[in-house]
Structure formats: structure tokens, C-alpha cells
Amino acid sequence: MPVYNKLVRDRIPAIIEQAGKTFTTRILNEEEYKKELQKKAFEELEEYVQAMTDEAAIEELADVLEIVHALAACHGASIEQVEQIRVKKAEERGGFREKIFLVEVRDE
């Protein structure tokens, strides 16, 4: 019997049950939830980095975005608030579209 000990999407228990399997779950407290979301963020980013096709990469980015939504709520913010901050930072510092790679900065 595989042991996972990880945060899963809300409908996973029902999907497991529909497959005729039994399982054990528990509900995390807020501190545990935040910690598990952070771990899940790294897991999903790693899966994105390992994606071999654009289609797979987009699937993994969707998972990353789902985690970002959950983390925003965990920190008491909406995704709209996070987006407002992203836009402000992009206006002040730019985005990443110009593909600029900083090699070095010399003090003169």
C-alpha cells in the first residue's frame, strides 16, 4: 500500500473512492496547510522544469497557478490583489519579456 503523506487536490479522495480503493486522509491545521502548500509549490515547479513538451509545461504551469491561488488565500489576499502587486512591480521594474541576462555589475 503506497503512503503519500502529501497535500492533494480537493476531489482526489472522491476519485480514489470511484476507483474502488480505500484511503486515509486528515484535515490540516492552518500552519500545516501553509507548510504543505509551500512544499507543493516546489513539487509543481520541479514538474514544470522537467516537462518535455510545451503542452506538458502548460499543464504544470496550471498546477503552479492553482498553488499560487491557494497561497494568496492562505496569506489573506485574493489573486486579484496579487495581480495588482505584480502589475505595479512590472511597471516599476519591468517584467521578463526582453530576455535580459545580467552578467555582472562593476563598482567604479
Automatic annotation (TrEMBL):
InterPro entries documented for this protein: MSMEG_1276-like_NTP-PPase_dom
CDD domains according to UniProt: NTP-PPase_COG4997
Entry protein name: Nucleoside triphosphate pyrophosphohydrolase
UniProt organism field: Geobacillus thermodenitrificans
